[in-house]
Structure formats: structure tokens, C-alpha cells
Amino acid sequence: REVIARQVGTMARLLDDLLDAARITNGKLELRREPVELRGVLGTAIETSQPLVEERGHVLTVDLPAEPVRIDADPVRLCQVVSNLLNNAAKYTPPGGRITLAA
Fold this sequence. Notes:
56% helix
């Protein structure tokens, strides 16, 4: 339930972000920066991309620092970027391949 609730929230914000296309082209896009823990943002991105990774039979390896890494970022945009990278890796890696996410 928690995963679904997080995913619904993330997807709603991503949909809102798609509507920002006009702002991007006009240079009026505003990032909503806040202090975030990198592991949480990456975890959400991994959850979003996991179905495609599994569908293609890939092994996803995640290598993160043991200590918390706090950054000042827009968590939704950062999640979107990492999720897009993971989705592209899953799409263009031959079936059964290995994908590594390291930070």
C-alpha cells in the first residue's frame, strides 16, 4: 500500500510536470528545491523503473554510500531524471543484462 501511495503521488507530480512543457520552452520553469536524502529519491526512482527492469530480465545493482547523503534538489525532478536513465538502460540493454546504479 505504501509503495502504491508513493507511486500515485509521484505519478501525479510527474503528470503536472509534463504540463510544464510550455514553461520549459519559455525559460520559466521553477525548480522546487528542498533538502532531501539521496537514498530516498533514488529508491523512488528504482521503484518506478523496477517493473521494466524485471520484465526485461535484468539484474539491477545499486551501490550507494553507507552514510546519508543530503542534497538540495527538486526531489520529483531528480527522481524523474534517474527513472528515465534507468528506463533507458532497461530498454537498450540486451535482455538478461546487468544495470548498475552507483552514487
